[in-house]
Amino acid sequence: MKLTLEEICEKLHQNDYKITPQRQIILKIFLENAEQHLSAEEVYAIVRDINPDVGLATVYRTLDLLAELEILQKVNFGDGKSRYEFSDLEVHHHHHLICVKCGKVTEFDDDQLETLEKNIAQKSNFKIIDHQLKFFGYCSNCQT
Amino acid sequence: MKLTLEEICEKLHQNDYKITPQRQIILKIFLENAEQHLSAEEVYAIVRDINPDVGLATVYRTLDLLAELEILQKVNFGDGKSRYEFSDLEVHHHHHLICVKCGKVTEFDDDQLETLEKNIAQKSNFKIIDHQLKFFGYCSNCQT
DNA sequence: TTTCATGCAAAGGTTTTGCATACGC
DNA sequence: GCGTATGCAAAACCTTTGCATGAAA
Predict the structure, then answer these.
(1) Per CATH, the architecture of A95-137 is what?
(2) What is the domain partition of chain A in residue ranges?
(3) Which of A115, A118, A127, A139 to mutate to test the interface with B (most CBs of B within 10 A)?
């Protein structure tokens, strides 16, 4: 299920954060690019097309805030910058295929990790709250 | 199975890289700290205890080289710096439990991902060469 | 009106690079 | 001796922070 802009604003409200135009712009960007993994700089570029007065620091602060509230999820694909994606709570079991040649990132869903997760929690006395699974390899275009 | 210093030097040799004292020092550090996930800065600190004349850039270049040759593996735990660990080829199925409170990283082994990996390769036409699995949660000390 | 958010510029931290020198082979 | 590796310092990045101003509630 996808959260709407209204529901997210509600969540901000509940946590005593203000609904500023800047925050709304950034939220809309993620709502409209749900399948992407945007970096701060990329978000900044899109933001500036909408309102050139927004500062980069605000983008960083907003991304931090949204990740804190678990609206976005911070991910790292090893390209030196953090990336953010919509944290679709129901599709928690969504992972990444990263092409080591062209860098393309595609996604796949799977819930097979459930049992593994329970196993580990039991064996190691670790209380697991999240997981990340990444596969590295060659995408269909780069296999030649 | 663990690679020995000799076997690694052999691999360097095969790829026309020179065996320098700096490279040997760094290799020894990883051989003697196989269970750790050292950052460049941490490696640098240990290197300087052995030979204070080694430069930080050399550490970075050597880590890059060793990762390129798949002797080390570059990993990222979200603390802003890259970390490196010995890439134990036979224990490819070794993953990380990261405590979100104290930051402690522990490891576990598992090969259940095999079948999942095959599944994905088939479904998505992706040729998988590696994977990374991370679990985030609370370690036994931080569960109170 | 009060408090939090923003913009700007500066600083911080990690990693990379240019270049002259030194060293492995 | 040839060509790569190194050390140093500077630069290149990405990200965070201080502070005065501006705007949300």
Answers:
(1) 2-Layer Sandwich (3.30)
(2) 5-86, 95-137
(3) A127
